[in-house]
Amino acid sequence: MRKHKDIEYAINDIGGGQKTFRDLSEACAYAVLQSMQMGGKYTNLDILVYSESGARALEGESGVEEYREDPDASVFKRIAIKADDQVRVA
Predict the structure, then answer these.
(1) What global pTM score does this model have?
(2) Is 43 exposed, middle or buried (0-12, 13-18, 19+ CB in 10 A)?
(3) pLDDT per position as a tens digit, 51-87
(4) How far is CA 6 from CA 20, 29, 90, in A?
(5) N or C: which end of the chain has fewer CB within 10 A?
């Protein structure tokens, strides 16, 4: 997925703050790390979209329609990520 000036990825960290990324792969890696540090609890990766152009870049015309339904939504999409430690595998 390419970067777009009107798309950010946000993750609430275990310290109560929020870290934002422009790159989805960096955000995913951070979300997995947060889940691991929280003992396998879900971590939310929030996709923030600030314009129709960003929605189009993310999901095409269906994304634009979704954006138009509620352009003031605080989160365009939320993905729950969980790192399940399977312990040692022999």
Answers:
(1) 0.88
(2) buried
(3) 999 999 999 999 999 999 999 999 999 999 999 888 8
(4) 13, 21, 45
(5) C
Amino acid at 11: I
Encoded amino acid at 63, one letter: G
- Pull the structure tokens for residue 73: 């939504």
Q: Give Cα 62 distance to the centre of its chain.
A: 19
Please give the Cα distance from 88 to 90 (Å, whole number).
Answer: 6
Structure tokens at 15: 């310290």
From the list 50, 61, 58, the residue with the least C-alpha distance to 2 is: 58
Length of the chain measured in residues: 90
Q: How far apart are CA 6 and CA 37, in angstroms?
A: 30
